[in-house]
From TrEMBL:
InterPro entries documented for this protein: Clx_II_MBL, Glyoxalase_II_hydrolase, HAGH_C, Hydroxyacylglutathione_Hdrlase, Metallo-B-lactamas, RibonucZ/Hydroxyglut_hydro
Species of the source: Bergeriella denitrificans (Neisseria denitrificans)
Family affiliation: Belongs to the metallo-beta-lactamase superfamily. Glyoxalase II family.
Subunit structure: Monomer.
Keyword Transmembrane found: no
A molecular function (GO) term: hydroxyacylglutathione hydrolase activity
Cofactor note: Binds 2 Zn(2+) ions per subunit.
GO terms for biological process, alphabetical: methylglyoxal catabolic process to D-lactate via S-lactoyl-glutathione
Keywords from the UniProt entry: Hydrolase, Metal-binding, Zinc
Domain annotation Metallo-beta-lactamase: ranges: 11-166
GN (gene name): golB
Reactions it catalyzes: an S-(2-hydroxyacyl)glutathione + H2O = a 2-hydroxy carboxylate + glutathione + H(+)
Name by which UniProt lists this protein: Hydroxyacylglutathione hydrolase
Membrane-spanning ranges: none
Amino acid sequence: MTITPVKAFNDNYIWIIGEGSRAVCIDPGDPAPAAEYLSRSGQVLEQIWITHHHHDHCGGIDALRRAYPEAAVYGNADIEAATRAADNGLQIRFGDALATVWATPGHTAHHLSYLLENSDGLHVFCGDTLFSAGCGRVFTGTIEALYESFQRYNSLPEHTLFYPAHEYTAANLRFAAHIEPDNADICAALQAAEQASAPTLPVNLAHERAVNPFLRAGLPQVKARVEALIGQPCDSGLAVFAALRELKNRF
């Protein structure tokens, strides 16, 4: 099984899972690069998985289904082009692997993640909920829901690989360094991201626990730094998380 990032727009990744002659496409906002990859690889699109309703994640569904009319489209009820309803707990078979759908709201009210388990381990296609060293903005969801989605991610094994839908890593690490200027892991990751010529993704959970301020909101040093920046106390991990999101919005 292969998992390939296909670049789209300015900073999107369409993830394509390949197994022999078959493929799954995740969040095809732009159909052209996905179709070009499938043609070049000789794979037939069997399934499309959609994390949320934003156009840069689902705008290419109709064009891809015209080319591959048998492809099943999994998505929440707010995805008009979905042919299979996806909700928390649904399991999807692809080849020898099994994907489990998690509801991970916050960025949007109905955001989904797809957790694919195969012989290589656990792979989480997290859309715009988690980015390397960051998290998605809150649009139609709530900060409370986004915080709970992060707690759920953080319950996974440390070797779990995350596949975000955007290349925001360097910018996020600059904010992380603003929050923890003495964090050696963040400094090293930022240097690597700024020098990278290839995608910085996927990333494993152990790495994110070391560099992602939104997974580190419960740490005393992060709490103290946030309180100093906003000039008031935070009485919970959620309060620190919410303050971090507001600070990132203005960074």
